[in-house]
# Entry
Amino acid sequence: MTRKVLFSMICAVLALATLQFGQTMGNEKLLHHTTDGVRWTQCAFGPDGVLWIVYVQGDTNKRSGGPIWVFSYDGTTVTEPFNATGTYNVKGNRPNISVSNKGHVIVVWGVVADNATYMRIRNPKTKTWGAIETVCYNYGGDEPVAQMDKDGNIHVFMTDEAGGMVFVRSKINGTWGGIKMLNEQRGKQGSLAVAPNGTVHAIWIEKTGEGSYQNVYTNRTVTTEWYRREALPKVYSGSNHPWITVGPNNKAVAIYQGVGPTENGSEIWVLKLGTAPQSAFPFYMVHFPRVAVDINNKIHAVVQLGGGDSGTGFRYTNNVSGEWAPHQTIEAVFPKVQGISANSFGNVAITTSSFTAPREPGTNIMVYSLEPIQKVVMPEADFTFSPTTGYPPLTVGIHGVHAVGPNDQEVTYDWTFSEGGTATGRDITHTYATHGTYTITLTITDNLGRTDEISKTITVNKTNPQVPLNPNARITMSSLWNNPQITFDLVWEINPANVPAHIEAYAIYMKEGDGEYVKVLTVSPTTLDASFPFTDLSVKRAFAISTLGYGGTESSKVYFQ
# Structure
């Protein structure tokens, strides 16, 4: 398929999605079949349109569970599941998955027996998984959520449901900060989402004085701490299982169960923060709502149909036309928490599991989507530079490798330099005035707003100036009887060991009496003499000279005789 045809398809998707297109989840596909029970099939689109899926093998009740598995689907190929926990002898629980705007896949899970949360990240450049990181131990391992912001900082939400505590932890500039407890009353259940602008939003529930649970919200940025807690509008007698996401417009959207007094069902509410909540699903036996916001900032919602461990499928609806569409029901056997995700091309997908016993032992993992899932290759940043090394002042020509978006439109090229400064354009020059090792970073952005970045280093050599040769001072006196004057005529010779292109100047120093030598004159590297007249004959003076190299280097001093 040509890029132009692909771009036309994407434009069609975007145009139709602006209308009331795609209200029905279709494009059903069996992604994977296991011989075990499977729960918690969460999903996340990457910036290239590839869908990533995580699930836990076995049961997800406390002190049970199993390995955490991850795989992807690009519309053609389903990859073999990868064991993120690295072992079969683990009771992983309630995993979550997210993908950064640069393609980092972040998987997080809990081990309730350890009251711990663990995380693993896949690097999109090397296509390899990093080591397992312990986010917290003996704090909380219930329903963790982790996301990476646009600058690579990571934020993790986790709870200790039995202890009634809600925690967050952030890894800023590669360093983990402290673990912060968010709740003031007994808390549990919630999630976290990172906006395109880097703001982190968190939601959870806390027990009120009447004994019910209410949604509580906060946010932070990389440079600010968590904002003061805010109780969200309450419906029915309480709330359960809140979830939060953020659209391209940086507006947070929450979804949660409005639990009735009899606890035999719930109504699903959606809340765009700052507005009144809306009913998305009528009161019924439903659990674990999830929400996604598409490229046009339209809201899509899904909820598990049936009891927590005895589900019968899921229901989907959206609000793309200003009101909630009639829900669509898709049957499944004992699903446990479906996933939903929107990509940057207008598509929305839902993943779920369905037991296949007794016909065939095991579980099917399914995907449904508004449009067929299709990979749209990310542009890759790369560049060359010449010369690759040298002496200051070093002017380097830097050339970005041609890259295009899906419609053959060339990307934008933005450059940053570690010693300071920026530039734009595919081909640029940059001059290094001092020696050292520097980083050149190129960020490209395509017409869909997708970015890629690459950094390379350049070493600017240190010049090694040698001292001038044969410094000599001739002293003359004039006007001995009327305004006498003493003149120091200084001369020196070029040191042939110096590379002319590396020499910036000569520096002449003078000392008066018992003082220190002070720089009094700088002359060009082609100047080989200087004169200093004085009328004050009572001060003893001495002179020295050094060679200045480009980049701030200097030879030792030699003294005029």
